[in-house]
Each structure stands twice: as structure tokens, then as C-alpha cells.
Sequence to fold (819 residues):
Amino acid sequence: MDLFIAIFTGTIIAATPLIFAALGELVVEKSGVLNLGIEGMMLIGAAFAFWAVIAGLPMPVAIIAGALGGAAASLLFGVLALTFLTNQYAAGLALAIFGSGVSAFLGRNFGSAPIDALDRMSIPFLSDIPVVGPMFFRFDPMVYFAIVMFFVISWFLYRTKGGLILRTIGESPETAHAIGYPVIRIRYLAVLFGGLMAGLAGAYLSVAYTPLWVENMTAGKGWISLALVVFATWRPLRVLLGAWLFGGMTILQLQGQALGIAVPSELLSALPYLATIVVLVIISQNRQMLALHFPASLAKPFRPAT
Amino acid sequence: MPPRLELRNITKSYPGIVANDDISMSIMPGEIHAVLGENGAGKSTLMKIIYGAAQADSGEIYCDGKPIAAHTPATSRALGIEMVYQHFALFESVTVVENIALAVSNTFDLDALARQITELSNRYGMPIDPHRRVHDLSVGERQRVEIVRCLLQAPKLLILDEPTSVLTPQAVVKLFETLRQLASEGCSIVYISHKLDEVQELCDTATVLRNGKVTGTARPKQSTSLELARMMVGAELPEMHVSPSVPSEKPVLEVRGLTAPARDKYGVELKNVSFEVRGGEIVGLAGVSGNGQAELISLLSGERTHGNALSIQIDGRAAAHLNASERRKLGMAFVPEERLGRGAVPPHALWQNAVLTAHRTGLVRNGLVDRKGANSFAAKIIERFKVKANGPQASAQSLSGGNLQKFIVGREIALQPKLFLVAQPTWGVDVGAAAFIRQTLVDLSRSGAAVLVISEELDELFEICDRLLVICQGQVSPPLIRTKTNREEIGLLMTKVDRGNGTNGRGEVAVQD
Ligand SMILES: Nc1ncnc2c1ncn2[C@@H]1O[C@H](COP(=O)(O)OP(=O)(O)OP(=O)(O)O)[C@@H](O)[C@H]1O
Ligand SMILES: [Mg+2]
Fold:
């Protein structure tokens, strides 16, 4: 039973940074912009948050600093891709490389000492219920916040006019412009939001998940978030499920290594990536659904007609 | 009283062409003003400039005496200016009501808005189901959505760029009632159409454009359509020659007992459709859009295949199971009703668009595209059909609506098909070019090809067809000989089953002209 609870909570925690990053990217891509630089934005967010903690700032401020770091990085991408109409693939890749450089640079003097991780919650009464308490009510606040963000984003995308505007801009910016929407401004907002969320994801890694500075601590989680969005066929619920699947495989694989299963550990480490992609590919077979949710203008530069 | 809209010296150039050249005009409140001109004259460009969707190189625009500053469609909408785009400004992936919600500025209550749409659209004689996705609508239905979207706003200035190009005659009658009502309440209307009888019926004044310049003004109600046509085209209209047809012995297209389920839950089921088209004749398929045309067209063109191979035969060969490409190999050519997206790839050059269907005529060798050949092929179409374009290198989307239509029809005719399926052949084409396209269709059939024309325009069908079929609720009538039928009969057949449910009502089609 304890092992089950450990796997369950481990899964939820491991999935949290992916939920932040992938949901952020989902919003960006729904507006028709492809930002491949999540990995870079996460690393910058991680460095900013870690730096704020060692500078003695309170934890909430550190997390906000991480989010703002991610947003600042995304602004850079926004200027390149939206104002100067640089190829979005190139601008995103550049951001990924730039972000890992910046975080490595900032991290030079972070030292190797662990910091005090983000506290777990202890909710009176609820946290003390046997089994249910440890499974659901002893996480740190960011875990709950990620779930809240899932509901907020789903509601925004499919229940509000703002979400409708965002989705339709992703389908056809020309048409949106033709009926009077400021396409570029809205895309900037989406990109900034994606940056905030990636920054949060990075912050979560450095101050909660592994409260210890390691260079390149994202270890490809930015890229897996990107893949999640695509294979989830641009639907929030599938992003969430995909993140949990990835989290679960990560934890199982760690347990497997701990148990000393006779499989090379490199192969085991690759398992979460493989499994997530395989499952998502299988569920994204329905072409009609795909066409319906795919932002048709994705990665195409847009300049308002003159 | 200052004019509702005043344009002063508007000039706008695109690469290789001056689309608007020093245009000035003004429109008073309550005035219905037509803008006339042949394809590519610069009408749509001018409308986009008025609406702020395009910016003039020079010139000023005044609304109620005040200059419009920082002009975008958003500022126009705030000023009460609304526009129906020639090529529609609708999002395909979302529903009708969501599309309309994006344009109306009040609270986001889709249920209330849907009720309002149902109610208003029925009142205007353009019934639309607010919950359908635009992707699944025919162009005629999309046009209704565009118009209803504008009418919902109580505009001060309404710009209508060919709003009736694919509207049914009875919807047009209702639309004109509505527009007159709006005008009497002080709304100014700019109306663009190639249908001169409509202009004469509706418009108080007209400005005529040719090659981007104002070449004259007219009072349509006091002019004959011949005079108007002459002002537009600047030459006499070509006369149609329809020689008697000599149908071939065996049918080229034979449809036998074709039954097919609806495309989706809003589609129409085809019930036991049978007809044939012989070489040397033109057969017209009349009907109010949304009566199974979409299903029939996709089955005939090969976009959808059918399990019973014998239900469609081309040149005596079972073809219902063949895909579009295999059917084209049998000598079929096809012009779909959506010219942007289905008929052409908008951002691609004209020569590339030509290769899309003409690749069997030797333009592709060993898997490589013969660019020179494709270029001269496209150039020939441009010349023969008088397409106004900046050469074969121009992108499809840079062409005016009518010119793109001419190019697509020309491309298919240049393939010298044995069987030619064409939907809305003269959609948005000016009177001169329409006459030319019709003549070309007649000539094509007289040289032995079988031609099937699907159109909502009865006049057009009566002008060129030898036999007429009517589709209604998925059933196709027995053929009627053109010379032995009349508009009343066709009109009744078009609405027969619908009678009594109010929407398509009495045989108004028939009495329209
Ligand atoms: N975006 C563009 N790029 C290049 N050329 C353009 C563009 N838009 C329009 N043109 C050119 O400007 C000219 C005027 O086009 P416009 O669409 O205004 O014609 P129109 O009068 O509306 O014709 P139609 O009756 O066929 O709709 C055409 O020759 C067209 O090729
Ligand atoms: Mg036009």
C-alpha cells in the first residue's frame, strides 16, 4: 500500500512541471504560434527562482520570479517571430539554446548546496485521513495550482469569448484581422502566457522537485511538453492525461532501477519518453478530430494586409 | 447634412497594377449606392479600404464629415460600418453562432444569440441553423451567414460585396426588402453586384469603375441594363450562339439508382438518383442549395467514392468506386463551387495551380515538373479567358474573385475533357466574361463533350442547357427539355417537398423574373 501511495504521489508531482509547460504551450499554439523554446524558458525560470531563494526572498516571490523569467524570455521570441516575422521554428530553437546558456551562466555561482524546498501543505483534518490524506492532501500548493490552471484554461478556451477569439486566430489570422481583431497583440499575449507557464514549470523543478542546482535540470522536459501538445491533438484534457502518464512512467522506471531489474538503466530512463509518445500516437489516430482541433495557421507568419 | 461616407482621391497600387486610381465618391445617409465594374476593376479593393482591411496609399476617407483616423476594421465597426466580404470572413472550425458572436460586441451568451439568429434569419428569408459548423456549409449557406451577421448589428453604413452571388432568388427578394427597410431608417448601403437587374431594382445611384478609375456615374433605375453593361465593359456585349445539340448515341455520364447516406447529420440523403448526360449536350442541375447537391457533386467528382461501382458510369466504364484522380484519367474535369481552397491553393502561383489538374497533359515528366511548359500553359489560359493577373507567377489569392473564377474554369476547359462537371460556373464573373464562359461551355459541348452544370441561377441554366434536372431533398427529377419547360415548372419542382414548412415557401423562384 505504501508503495502504491508513493508511486501515485510521485506521479502527480513528476507530472506537475509538464502540466504547466504543456498547457502554456497549448495556449500559444492555439493562437497559431509555435514556440519551440519551452526548454529554454523553463531553464531560465528555474534559474531565476533558484536565485531568488538563495537571495533570501520568500518562496512565493521566488516562484513569481521564475514565471517572470520565462515570460521575459518568451517576449524575446515574440519580438522575433511576431514583429520581425522570423521563421518560428528558427526563433524557437534559438530561444531553447539561448535559455540553456543563460541558465548555465546564472547558475555558476549557485553552489551545490540544496535549498529548503517548497513546503508541502498540511490541511487540518483532511491531510490526516488514512490513505486518502497522503494521496490527495499533502502536496505542495503548486501541484494544486497546476490542476486549477487546467480547469481555468479549459474553461477559457471553450467557454469564453476570449478563448473563441484565440482559437479562431489560430485557424485564420487573415479572417480575424478582416473582422477587426488585433491579431498580433493577441498572439503576443498568448506567447507571454506560454512564457509565464514555462517559467512556472522551471521554478517548480528548481525549488520543489529537485531543490538543488544542477545544470540543465529540465532534462528534456520542455521537449516532451511540446510533444505532449501535439500528440494530445491540442486538447487540454489529453495534455493533462499525457502528463500524468509521463509522470507515472518516470516514477515506475525509478522504482524499477531501485529494484535492480536486469535492464540497462539508460533504456529504463528512456521508457517514459517512449511510452508517452506511443500512447499519444495511438490515441491521436482520428483524423477528423485532429483537423477540428488543429490550429490551421500554426507556425505560419502573419502580417496584416496593407 | 454631411455625407455618410466620402472618399477623396483614394489611390492604391499592388505590384504591377494600380487597383484604385484617384477615386472620389460620396454617399448620403439612406442612399443605396451601387459600385459597378468588370472583374478586376478595383471594387473589392476599394471596399476593403473603406472598411480598413486594406490601407490606401493616399487619399482620405470621411464618415459623417469626420476623417477616419488609424483605420482598421475595428475602428470601422465602432463607427457602425459593416461589410459582407466577397470571399466571406468566416472561421470554418467553429459554428455559425460562434462566428457571429465574434462580430457582435454584446455579452457572450451563445444560447440567446442562437435564438436571435434563428429568428432573424427566418424573418430575412435566409434560414440558417446556428449550431452547424461553417466547414459543413455550402457557399450559398455561408453567404447567408455573412449577411445575417451584418444585419444583426444595425449598421450605419453597410458594404455588400457581391452578397447575392450564390443566394437563391427568393432570398434575394427578401434581402432587398430588408435593405430598403434599413435604408429608409437612414442606413447607407454600398452594393456591388454583377447582376444588373438587381442593381436596377435596388440602387438609387451608381459609380462605375474601369481599370481602377471612376469612368462615370449613373442612375440605375433610369438606365437600361444594356447601357449599364456598356459603361462597365466599355464595349458591346458578345452575343450568345447556341446551336442545336446533337447528343451522342451512348451517354458519357450515366448515374443509375445512386443512393447514398448524408455526408453528416445536416446533410441530405440521396435517394435513388438516376440520370444521364450524353456527349454534345449540356445538362443543368437546378435546385436550392442544401438539397443534396453537395453529396451529389462529391460523389460525381470522386471526392467521395461509392461501393456500388456501377451506379456511376463514365464513358461506359464503372466509375463509382474510383477516386477523383482515376476519374480524371477517364476524361473528366471538374470545377468545384469553392474556388479558394478547393478550386485553387490561394498562396500558390497560377502556374502551380494549373499543374494541379493539368499534370497529365505532359507538364510532368519523370516526376519532374516542366516549369516552362506549366508557365506557358497558364499564360495561355490567362490570355484566352482574359484573366486580369500579373502573369503566371501571380498568386491565386492576389486575383480578383471573378478573375480567379475565369482562371479555374479556363484551366479545366483547357484539358479538353470528355465529361465536364462544373458548379456555379459564373460565380462573381462580370457580364462580359459570364457570356464568354457560357459560350465556351456551349462550344465545348458542341465539340462532343458532355457537360453537367450545377447552378442556382435559373437564367443561366435556361440560356445554355439542353435539358434540365431538378434536385430537391435528395431526389432528382426526370429530365425536362429546355424548350418545353418554363421557370414556373422548374420553380415548383425546386420547392415541391418543402411546401408548407414556410422556409422555401411558394414557387417564388418562378415569378422572380
Ligand atoms: N493582395 C493583392 N495583391 C496583388 N494584387 C491584388 C491584390 N488584391 C487585388 N489585387 C489586384 O487588384 C485588382 C483589383 O482587384 P479587385 O479585387 O478590387 O477587383 P474587383 O473589381 O473586386 O473584381 P471582381 O469583380 O472580380 O471581384 C486586380 O487586378 C487584382 O489582381
Ligand atoms: Mg471583387
Remarks:
- Residues 2-30 of chain A form the longest helix (29 residues).
- The pocket of magnesium ion (ligand 2) is lined by residues B 43-44, 86, 161, 400-401 (CB under 6 Å).
